[in-house]
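Quick question: what would this complex look like in 3D?
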Amino acid sequence: MRRTSRRLTALLAGLTAVSAFAAQAAEPTRIRDLPRKPVADADDPINKYVAQQTVDGLVLSVTIDGPNVTLDQAVPARVRKTPRKPTGKGDFSPVTAVGFAGGAQVSQVAVPDSVIRALDDWNTPHNGALVRVTKRQVVLPLAAPRALDTVEVTAPATGAHARIDVRAAYAEYCAAGQRAQVRENPMCPQGGAGPPTGQQPGQPPTAQRPK
Amino acid sequence: MIGVSGLRRLFSGLVVLAGLSLAACSNPSVSALHDPLYRASSHVSTITAIGSDSQNGIDSVSISVTAGVLTACNNFTPSLIPCRTAVQSFGRECIFSHERGPAVCRLPLQLGDRSLITYTAFAKNAQGRTAKTTPITYAGGAPLTQVTLNILGFSISLPWETARPVWWHTDLPVGQSAADKIDIGFFPDADWGTNYQGFTSGMQIIARGSFFDGSDLFSNFYRFWKNEFNLWAGPAGGNGEDNCVRGLSGSAATVSAAVDGKAIVHQNAFRDCSDIALGGLGTSQSTLGDAAWVFTHESGHFLHGLGDEYQGGGNGNVSDPPNTWTSKAACQSAAPGLSLNASQCAQIGTTGFWHVDDGNLTTMRDRNLASDWRTASGLALGRRMSKCTGGACY
């Protein structure tokens, strides 16, 4: 019994020594640096990846406060080609945005709402809570192969619905196209889909580039 | 006829043969990581690749790099996900002699402004068998702040920021779409002021502790599934305060459109607040001793829709399956269908919410590095990974 125990101890000691040795990283006996070679932009896997995964779009940041929707900013940008498909009911119902150009629906996206939150206190235990907010920020990445003029935002969790004029987001594209006398500029909205309902009367659209 | 002793000898022989053939056919393994994960100023970044094959030994470990200058691509609209120009490929091969311990190859790179680096590591064992990592792309140096678009015969210049890749899987198999990943963006809280490097250091603590380092039980799941996640850094514009007041403004808000989960990293103490959502916003304090655990817990809310499983937290959920129920009956009804023990349904304190408690430390309840995703929480995370590997994380 004692002999077995001694053998086991010796075996374990050996194993420990081996694993300690194994944990020590070995340095190479020789290093060979491979020469730098130019790669054409079109052959760069990253550029192929982004071209495959994204499309021209419009990113809207909105503040939803109960039933009201206010546009914080709208920025033309490449967005994910295959949008997420969130699901949920009641307070977890997704926020949807539908993009229009000249009265025709161009694209649609849904994102999770953020009405229900967990408040965790890591300094005073048990001082958190389940929080329900009605005022929250939502970012909506809409595909937009051509300029959108109106976006319809719906947030069922608080009964919010608004049509937002987003033409101002393309102001610089329109101005530059006019200067260059471009006849058909897909980056300049060609019309509108009626007056927006998500803004106060008399207020200009607040779409803008990132600061 | 063969006797019992003969059978034993035959069995022993088969075991030895199987062992020998396993040894003969063993494959090498290789892992790689760059350090620091992200820094928005010129710096030396070191890619470290480690090859292992304790049976046959490693003969070489190599690192293949593609590097260039980060751009916002050149389309009608600038991209939030970066492209690259002025691209070069190069690499390093480290030679070993049947190395049976970990064989390490390091490649230090001096990163200038707007660097965008992709690396793949390879290991070859003494038998010529090889292993490789999935290509990882990351950024370094001062970020892009402006873009000039040349389209339709005119050009316009705009202030612009992209998401800054920290751990980005960019494998694009020929003829296939890229695999779907859960994208997490880290944004600096206003409490960092102009100290963006403080933020990146804080993010490094959280990201390494959650996805790459150590052996604590709480990080087992994310460390095992790290290749199902992309990690990004965002520009300034995050702001979190107590009482669930938090948001992203300006470029940070726009860039957040490129990710599923958004974490505002803060240094000062205030109560963390996360959406209970399948892709939402949360806050996480990087200056806590267990910052990686706190982030992991918060990600349970804003990535997986899990509720807290302790009294004095947010016990609601939108996870699949739910990890909390509003009655004992609902918990007991759901448990068998999840292969969970209905008799383990227990009320969370006196909240009126119920969960399945198997008696082990669980990450949505126990602030402990030895916690794990237990019972229904574990099932929810498992299902999310199944969806990712199935082609659509959300």
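Answer marked as accepted. Chain B has three domains: 27-173, 179-303, 315-394.
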